[in-house]
């Protein structure tokens, strides 16, 4: 059988399938279905320095091939996360990745220092948040701000640092290079694509926030292309996400250049989606007579 283990920036995952942030809670809600230890890793729901109540509802809307969300980073704050949830996660025998968000550079630095000291395996830096000190522009939309925030967080982070990239930019490859220059050990992509739906009867947006992040099968081709662009631009590992719902999708993402994948929206449709993808990847690798699942990474043969 093919070896399913992957190593990303020194962190070993027993397989390349990771639960995406915001879709798996803190890794405990799915225990009635299967133990988190069957996954390669769990990215915790985004954590911020202080408690956040999130955006007012409605904050979820269906789309023909996915969903929009504007949850607004609802979470209890980093101190409660460390005290209440992290100890339970550490008992799950699974790699734990803390997704860190914030609205200022100081927020990011302080939150990262706390979760890093608490002993997570990796930090995923969510730079799609608006920078309140720069008029609300996302941290992740300019190379200068990406390199600066990555470097600042890298200085206090005691574990591998992964930067989660927004697709809402002109060149995601250039953004990835800025993250690498700032000291990122890996990048993950893509975060959601900004979208909107309107109720034609009320003539109002369905989401109270007006706009939200589009995820689900509709974004897969965009994600695959962006992962390929980034793979050609940087030397650090990539974790690919965006619309993965089957093992075929995961294989496609790995061929484009991903060392591992994150599964998110598919879990809402089918709680067992990640398990089915893991089993499907194993079967595919064995059918291809691979010695290791890592042989798929970047192996697409372009015309």
Notes on the structure:
By secondary structure, this protein is of the alpha/beta class. The chain has a single domain, classed as Alpha-Beta Barrel (TIM Barrel), CATH 3.20.20.70. The chain has 8 helices and 16 strands. The strands form 4 sheets. The protein has an 8-stranded parallel beta barrel, surrounded by 6 helices. The protein has a 4-stranded antiparallel beta sheet with strand order 5-6-14-11, with no helix packed on it. Helix 3 links the parallel strand 8 (122-126) and strand 9. Helix 3 (143-154) runs parallel beside helix 4, helix 5 (220-233) packs parallel to helix 6 (247-256) and helix 6 (247-256) packs across helix 8. The radius of gyration is 18 Å and the shape is globular. The mean pLDDT is 93.
